[in-house]
Amino acid sequence: MMDRFTIAGIATAVTAGATDAVSVAREALARIARYDTVQPAVWITRIAEAEVLVAAARVDERIAAGETLPLAGVPFAIKDNLDLAGVPTTAACPAFGYTPARSAHVVERLIAAGAVPMGKTNLDQFATGLNGTRSPYGAPACVYNRAYVSGGSSSGSAVAVAAGLVAFALGTDTAGSGRVPAAFNGLVGLKPTKGRWSTSGLVPACRSLDCVTVLAHTIADARAVDQVVAGFDPADPYSRSGDDRPVHAARIGVPHPAQRAFFGDTASERLYHQALATLAAGGAELIDIDLAPLREAALLLYNGPWVAERTAAAQPLLDADPGAIDPTVRDIMAGGRNVSGVDVFRGQYRLAELQRIADTLWQSIDLIALPTTPTIYRIAEMRAAPVVLNSVLGAYTNFVNLLDMAALALPAGWRDNGTGFGVTLIGPAWSDAGLLTAGEAFCAAQATTATPPMDTEGKMETVKLAVVGAHLENMPLHWQLTSRNARFVAATTTASTYRLYAMANTTPPKPALIHAADGAAIAVEVYELDVAAFGSFVAEVPAPLAIGSVVLADGSTVKGFVAEPRAVDGATDITALGGWRPYIAGLGQP
Predict the structure, then answer these.
(1) In this model, does residue 52 exceed pLDDT 80?
(2) What three-state secondary structure class fits 332?
(3) DSSP-assigned states of every residue in 409-443
(4) 120 catalytic per annotation
(5) Residue 373 in contact with residue 396, Cβ under 8 Å?
(6) Confidence of residue 1 (pLDDT cuts 50, 70, 90)
(7) Which among 107, 171, 234, 250 is placed 20 to 30 Å from 76, CA to CA?
(8) 157, 177, 200, 239: which is the annotated catalytic residue?
(9) What is the C-alpha separation between 138 and 41, in angstroms, rounded?
């Protein structure tokens, strides 16, 4: 990964004269040019080099004149549903595009504070999607494994920050569009209270719910942007003022265990539990809450009348040239035509009831801590099932704006495939400052376990495999691993929930590992194989053995040898030996 640009580092250096805005801009331009050879789909419109350098020189002139600029010389990116004067706004739909005479209110404030815009980033068309694949300009991918989605709809914005091209980027968030890509790319994503940041100059997705967001590397950078752009805007009918609500983060709501869904992603499940342990170690009391009312509210967004707001946002184009719209986006928008006025009022009535239920939560808890997403998908998987899998990504995000909550997405570790996992702290409206403080404490505690992988060139997909018997090192079938270039990871044990049997009549002798409540820890070796090599290995596993999921002593789950029930017919229970090697030694075999 490229060295990070940070707001604090750049603004301090430019202000002190240790560097200048023009030099920073040249470096950003060079990084962007290099990364274009890796991921050309990050940007929709790049600002010409000469214009960038003129803007940076203007910052240097202002510094020389004695101005104090909190974002002096900081390069940033703008999601292409936000206006930048003189630069086309497309919302990732060329037929919709226009060139605004004025920048969005938040963009104006950032530039006034000394930030230097580098261009407009890609997004799921009309900000309709949480995955980043719904754009005619291409699909930005996760910075750390380009087989996987970047998350969306603020896809290009997240990639531009995570790849080290800019210090921060503006995104937007209606159902999680700023939080999901933050999670997948190891970033901080602040979704402020509705109305705290102006939405003037934003192409609406659902106008009554839309929020402008920031994606950054650190809490300090997110706070710096909030301090510049937050404030009432009389030109925005949805802008509002409010006092910061004190948040102590002593009581944190977490889903009841039966409501924690990860859709088979054991890495996400493990990382979420680690995040909860970090919060608890910091002194927070974790309190189980019922997610059912929140999930019901979430359903109103796409299965209720609010989908008509998406129709309203692009209705002229939808009516005149529907073929210009991405098919999945078009189908979602077209669904709003069937919403009646009666549906709208009934939806509002039910949302008011759910809002009252949600408001009572804050009497017993200070914040909620959820996985930002349950899992992540490959780009190919998302394209094969774009609606169903996109819905999974929004399982823990869709309700937040509807229920007038603020949210802060935080990096919370990395899956073995290199993709980021995140947790989101959620609070009531105007808890933004408290969320940032709580997030700072969490990130500090996570610092030793949340180091990003150093691989922006794409990661070969691999699978970790636990072997328990004849495939152990120096055992008769170990060659089946070495011939596939398997890489040794660790010698460890399973969780204490397995029994080990020596199967009858097998050549060479083989064990059967069986999950059992009255089990014990069994010695295993863990190897890592490329996906193709793993597939060819599995194809050669003979019945009654099979490859399934094995829980290790540290709580992580890897693939490993398991067995059908018939494997224990005539077998000898050797669990008490703790592993296969003592059994083989007892037979007098090497």
Answers:
(1) yes
(2) helix
(3) EEEEEE-TTS-EEEEEEEEETT-HHHHHHHHHHHH
(4) no
(5) yes
(6) very low
(7) 234
(8) 177
(9) 5
Whether 551 and 494 have beta carbons less than 8 Å apart is answered as yes
pLDDT in tens, 160-210: 999 999 999 999 999 999 999 999 999 999 999 999 999 999 999 999 999
> Residue for token digits 């900000």?
127
In degrees rounded to 5, what are phi and psi of residue 43? -110, 150
Q: Show the tokens assigned to 577.
A: 């030996």
Distances in Å between the alpha carbon of 479 and those of 89, 112, 488, 537? 58, 64, 13, 11
CB neighbourhood size of 581 (10 A): 15
Whether residue 464 lies in the annotated active site: no
Q: Going by C-beta distance under 8 Å and a sequence separation of 6 or more, which residues neighbour residue 4?
A: 164, 167, 217
Number of neighbouring beta carbons within 10 Å of residue 464? 21
Round to whole Å and give the CA distance between 88 and 94.
10
- Determine whether 79 is an active site residue: yes
Output the six-digit token pair for 102. Answer: 């004025």
Query: What is the sign of the dihedral through the CA atoms of 486, 490, 491 and 494?
Result: negative
Annotated catalytic residue: which of 103, 135, 153, 431? 153
Number of C-alpha atoms within 13 angstroms, CB side, residue 345?
A: 3
Q: Which two tokens stand for residue 180?
A: 């999901």
Alpha helices by DSSP H, listed for 177-216, are 179-184
Total-model pTM: 0.86
Sign of the dihedral defined by the CA atoms of residues 530, 531, 534, 540, in that order: negative
The percent of residues above 70 in pLDDT, for the chain, comes to: 97
> CA torsion 553→554→560→566, rounded to 10°?
40
If you count them, how many residues does the chain have? 590
